[in-house]
Design a protein that fits this description.
With 508 residues, the protein is an alpha+beta fold. The chain has 15 helices and eleven strands. It is 41% helix and 14% strand. It is elongated.
Length: 508
């Protein structure tokens, strides 16, 4: 009976973890050892294909050691077993299934022993430990395969050893991590492969007086109101502070004091005529205002044009005549995309156009503000020096009339990666033949040029066909199978095969 490569690798892992041969010689403590009660599980569910006679996938469960911490290869196989059991790939769908109780007990013991084995084997004695891709490498590799940089924030953090995030001893693998890698790959593949109608390119204009200045006018009004109420309260002693909208006496006093500090720059902003027709990028202690576009899901990605009409104030130093544009996400903060020099003045503004890309599948939007070239401490110091001079603070450098966002713009449609991964079926090509073609191509690329075994491909083709019985499910079937490939050991593990004991020069 044929089995997939993932399945056989997982069983190999099982095998190497379970010394199903009796009479093990006790070794020095500490050790990570699986309870021998699980031998019966392997005999009942796995020996048909993985005993000394059949050795399917080169796996002989009869010779495996239950001592998980015996050596690094043994622990690695155990790790693969966890992934295969957790994914439901072992036993295969057409074989007798392990009962829920037996499977739960096996996984619980195996997970505990893997933790112990990791501690024991963390010192590899100078031998380089085979390791999985860390989060950064996984993101880079998916970007090379899928054409965009996916969100990997849900993957386990890489606990560096000695300042490095590529230490094999800390890059172990568990069943939970398998699911996290698989889920991350599924999201990325869904973004790339799900067919969409070509989005219509639109232009959105954001007016500076609405996006920024209205907030300053509102804040100034509130600050004046708080000040008037605090003065009224402090001018009498009959009524409690709550009658004036304050929690207590201290809050009323604080509002009165804050007015002297906070209102001068607000008053300066709202009295500027250009604040009524745009956004004054006033300096503050910590940051300057910016105009942000609405965030979108990035379902289609695409190129956008940011168009800004802006000018600088007379006397503004050259170094302060730059706008900074960013991509802002909900989870990972913001990324600076570039800078643009403002060449127009307040009286004769100039229009700046910059092309930007919205990462495919990443929730976020764009932001335009003044270039942030100072650290917070420097900003506060500069602002304080100016405040002593003019009672207000550092004068503004730039003004923005409006920001336009045009897009998405696509040079080609659909996504070329989509056509590459899911090319049209050839005339009279059977679905099974088509499935094998696209799966073989993707797996070979994912495995860095190594073609998978026929048993592995057979299993994946079988899975694809079982999930694509209806035409509209073919993309979902491809996503499911490709995600398994991107969570399999041959993709996740960094392997440097060589012949003999002598080191070899790595190729490209």
């Amino acid at each position: 009976m044929k089995r997939s490569k993932t399945f056989t690798l997982a069983l190999t892992a099982l095998a190497l973890c379970c010394n199903i041969s009796a009479g093990q010689t006790p070794q020095a403590s500490p050790r990570a050892v699986m309870p021998e009660k699980h031998i019966a599980v392997f005999k009942q569910y796995c020996f048909d294909c993985h005993d000394a006679e059949s050795k399917e996938g080169k796996l002989n469960l009869e010779e495996l050691s239950f001592e998980v911490s015996r050596d690094i290869p043994t622990a690695e196989w155990w790790s693969k077993i966890l992934a295969a059991l957790n994914a439901g790939e072992m036993p295969p769908m057409d074989a007798e299934q392990i009962s829920n109780a037996e499977k739960a007990a096996l996984l619980e013991d195996l997970s505990q022993q893997m933790v112990t084995a990791r501690q024991i084997l963390s010192d590899s004695g100078g031998v380089i430990t085979i390791r999985r891709l860390n989060r950064r490498e996984y993101q880079n590799t998916l970007e090379a395969l899928l054409g965009f940089r996916p969100d990997v924030s849900t993957l386990p953090a890489d606990d560096g050893t000695g300042g490095f995030d590529t230490a094999g001893a800390s890059l172990f693998f568990s069943s939970d991590q398998f699911e996290q890698y698989r889920a991350t790959a599924t999201r990325a593949l869904t973004s790339v492969l799900t067919p969409h109608e070509k989005p219509e390119s639109k232009t959105l204009r954001l007016e500076g007086e609405v996006e920024v200045s209205e907030g300053f006018f509102t804040q100034a009004k509130q600050t004046r109101d708080n000040h008037e109420r605090s003065k009224a309260y402090l001018a009498q002693d009959a009524k409690p502070p709550t009658d004036f909208g304050f929690r207590d006496h201290q809050q009323a006093v604080k509002q009165n004091t804050r007015f002297k500090t906070n209102y001068p720059p607000l008053g300066d902003y709202i009295t500027r005529p250009e604040a009524k027709t745009g956004a004054v990028l006033s300096h503050s202690k910590n940051r300057t205002p910016s105009i942000a576009t609405p965030k979108t899901s990035g379902a289609n990605g695409g190129k956008y044009i940011l168009r800004v009409r802006a000018g600088y104030y007379d006397g503004t130093p050259e170094r302060e005549r730059y706008l900074e544009y960013r991509f802002v996400t909900g989870k990972q903060g913001s990324t600076v995309l570039g800078y643009a020099k403002v060449t127009g003045t307040i009286d004769e503004p100039s229009i700046i156009e910059v092309p930007v890309n919205h990462p495919l599948g990443e929730f976020g939007g764009f932001s335009i503000g003044q270039r942030d070239y100072k650290e917070k401490v420097s900003k506060r110091y500069t602002n304080e020096v100016w405040r002593k001079k003019n009672g207000i603070g550092q004068p503004p450098s730039l003004w923005i009339d409006y920001v336009e966002m045009e897009g998405p713009i696509f040079d080609t449609w659909p996504n070329p990666v989509q056509l590459e991964l899911l090319p049209p079926r050839k005339t009279a090509e059977a679905e099974a033949s088509y499935a094998r073609r696209i799966i073989t191509n993707f797996a070979t690329r994912a495995f860095r040029g190594s073609k998978p075994s026929e048993t592995y491909l057979n299993k994946l083709v079988e899975r694809y066909l079982s999930k694509s019985s209806e035409k509209e499910n073919s993309v979902k079937a491809a996503v499911d199978v490709f995600a398994l490939i991107l969570a399999s050991p041959d993709f996740l593990y960094m392997s440097e095969p060589r012949q003999g004991e002598k080191p070899e020069r790595l190729d490209g």
